[in-house]
């Protein structure tokens, strides 16, 4: 009888651990989708960019709603790979509508800093040159600073 109770207790414990694992996995997915710097206000976004080492012209902010596609084209896959180098992953937001904020860099107006935001949180972005031969870099301070030098 004692062995039966012991096995039953172990089974219950295993089931509880399995349920806990499933709940935690769901929580991690939801929190991963909600993570990112606060981007609710213009000052929040400008401060985030400043922490990356770039001053922007806040008064020249542009705002555009964008749909993150359900299926990524090759171009979008490459863009998402760039995002992943900075710790973002747009595949978590497939099919969602996000807001793209764009600002010219103060010290290098040919460069624009672009923030992709979802529910007032930064979920990605880049710094890019409008020139045809220009480049695009991830939201990483060391890469962004190289562009400005």
Topology:
Layout: H1 2-34, H2 42-51, E1 62-67, H3 74-85, E2 97-104, E3 111-118, E4 121-129, E5 136-137, H4 141-148
Antiparallel strand pairs: 1-2, 2-3, 3-4, 4-5
Search tags:
149 residues; alpha+beta; 5-stranded antiparallel beta sheet; globular
Strand-residue proportion: 15-25%
Uncertain stretches of 5 or more adjacent residues: 11-34
Q: What does the main sheet amount to?
A: 5 strands, antiparallel
The SSE string, one letter per element, is: HHEHEEEEH
Q: Give the helix/strand class.
A: alpha+beta
Total helices: the number is 4
Strands ordered across the widest β-sheet: 1-2-3-4-5
- State the separation between the terminal residues, measured CA to CA: 77 Å
> Portion of residues in helices?
40-55%
Number of domains: 2
Structural account:
The protein has 149 residues and is an alpha+beta fold. The protein has two domains: 1-34; 37-148. The protein has a five-stranded antiparallel beta sheet with strand order 1-2-3-4-5, covered by helices on one side. The protein contains four helices and five strands, in the order H-H-E-H-E-E-E-E-H. Strand 4 (121-129) and strand 5 form a beta hairpin.
């Amino acid at each position: 009888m004692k062995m039966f109770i012991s096995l039953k207790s172990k089974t219950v414990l295993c089931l509880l651990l399995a349920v806990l694992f499933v709940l935690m996995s769901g929580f991690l997915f939801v929190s991963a989708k909600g993570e990112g710097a606060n981007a609710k206000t213009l000052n929040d976004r400008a401060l985030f960019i400043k922490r990356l080492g770039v001053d922007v012209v806040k008064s020249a902010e542009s705002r555009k709603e964008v749909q993150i596609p359900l299926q990524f084209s090759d171009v979008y896959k490459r863009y998402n790979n760039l995002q992943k180098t900075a710790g973002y992953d747009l595949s978590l937001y497939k099919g969602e509508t996000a807001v793209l904020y764009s600002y010219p860099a103060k010290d290098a107006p040919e460069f624009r800093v672009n923030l992709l935001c979802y529910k007032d949180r930064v979920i990605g972005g880049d710094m890019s040159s409008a020139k045809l031969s220009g480049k695009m870099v991830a939201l990483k301070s060391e890469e962004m600073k190289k562009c400005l030098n």
